[in-house]
TrEMBL record:
This is Ribosome-binding ATPase YchF. ATP binds at N11, V12, G13, K14, S15, T16. Residues 129-156 form a coiled coil. Belongs to the TRAFAC class OBG-HflX-like GTPase superfamily. OBG GTPase family. YchF/OLA1 subfamily. ATPase that binds to both the 70S ribosome and the 50S ribosomal subunit in a nucleotide-independent manner. The gene is txxe 3221-ychF. Keywords: ATP-binding, Coiled coil, Magnesium, Metal-binding, Nucleotide-binding.
Length: 365
């Protein structure tokens, strides 16, 4: 499964947020692929479509899809030189597929800020610099090797040197590796470097409890938004403290508490949705009497590989898929009505599964 890593300077609210994530707790029995690790929290992806399908099909159970957040502690200024938990931190962050960068936008004299002042833009710059320095070291090392290899005259190495030089140039100019536009071949050449600054990022702006319902009134959040926009990144304002309280409630109590706060959707739910999108993920559904369930695929996944998410046998023995779009299913109201309307399509192995598709796979065993 794909993972989003939570990073940020000390005392910005990472642990508070991560505790809210683990408290909210997914039914881990449903997600055998998930890691059991104190630094990993499994979250279920809230999806109104799944709720609607459950209402229509009335199955015995409803199973949302899930993914993992990893708490990556230990980033301080100097991490790229091995300060603090530097090296361990960098090893962990290389393994994630997207980064949620928590920045402090709450004022509280009792909670020390590592640089003495609440200034999210300077915090972002500090962290980004460490990540850029770490990548720079990786790129330099590889570049040295690639240059030696060009002596063989192989075109592959010449191209590799060119790509690495472009990335190094960006890093030297304080720009992340993701700002360098690469075609698919070029991406392949550097993929195994796992460059940290090539991973997609979103900013979680942690505001105080009193601002939970109106975070955008906070000038620091506005500043983070303006900065993120220049990078093409998203911002999710959130009050980690409030989320920690919400996570202890369930169902009706949670709804009541949100209403009291004047919030439609919890910050955690917004964060989960934004991270899911950031990871380039989308959802298809299976809908049977036993179970209505959401499954995660990467955008562009074809039917057999989508089937493989359920079970490898489904992929190996794939014959075809019966497919109906979510909209058509809801308009028809039931699978029988979908059939009567002639809206159940038969699709083969080249079908690219669309977000919201309801799939039924036929396969040989
Ligand atoms: P981390 O070092 O980034 O993991 O930060 P923590 O989650 O441990 O938070 C550091 C301190 O800030 C803790 O005492 C938290 O209770 C506090 N804190 C976190 N979020 C908020 C907030 O929104 N408002 C206030 N007043 N304190 C917060």
């Amino acid at each position: 499964g794909l993972k989003a890593g939570i990073v940020g300077l000390p005392n910005v609210g990472k642990s508070t947020l991560f505790n809210a994530i683990t408290q909210a707790g997914a039914e881990s029995a449903n997600y055998p692929f998930c890691t059991i690790d104190p630094n990993v929290g499994v979250v279920e992806v809230p999806d109104e479509r799944l709720d609607k399908l459950t209402e229509l099909v009335k199955p015995q159970r409803k199973v949302p899809t899930a993914f993992e957040f990893v708490d990556i502690a230990g980033l301080v200024a100097g991490a790229s030189k091995g300060e603090g938990l530097g090296n361990k931190f960098l090893a962990h962050i290389r393994e994630v597929d997207a980064i949620v960068h928590v920045v402090r936008c709450f004022q509280d004299e009792n909670i020390t800020h590592v640089s003495g002042k609440v200034d999210p833009l300077s915090d972002i710059a500090t962290i980004n610099l460490e990540l850029i320095l770490a990548d720079l070291e990786t790129v330099e090392r590889r570049l040295e090797r690639a240059r030696k290899n060009t002596k063989s005259g192989e075109k592959k190495y010449i191209q590799e040197v060119q790509v690495l030089e472009r990335i190094r140039e960006a890093l030297y100019n304080d720009q992340p590796a993701r700002s360098v536009e690469l075609d698919d071949d070029e991406k392949l050449l550097v993929r195994d470097l796992h460059l940290i600054t090539s991973k997609p990022v979103l900013y979680a702006a942690n505001v105080s409890e009193s601002e939970a319902a109106n975070a955008d009134g906070n000038p620091l959040v506005q500043a983070v938004r303006a900065y993120a926009e220049s990078e093409g990144a998203e911002v999710v304002p959130i009050s980690a403290k409030v989320e920690a309280e919400i996570a202890e409630l369930d169902g009706e109590d949670k709804a009541l508490f949100l209403e009291e706060l004047g919030i439609k959707e919890s910050g955690l739910d917004r964060l989960i949705k934004a991270a899911y999108k950031l990871l380039g993920l989308q959802t298809y559904f299976t809908a049977g009497e036993q179970e209505v369930r959401a499954w995660t695929i990467r955008k562009g996944t074809k039917a057999p590989q989508a089937a493989g998410v359920i079970h490898s046998d489904f992929e190996r023995g794939f014959i075809r898929a019966e497919v109906v779009s979510y909209e058509d299913f809801v308009a028809a109201g039931s699978m029988n009505a979908v059939r009567e309307r002639g809206q159940l399509r038969l699709e083969g192995k080249d079908y690219v599964v669309q977000d919201g598709d309801i799939m039924h796979f036929r396969f040989n065993v």
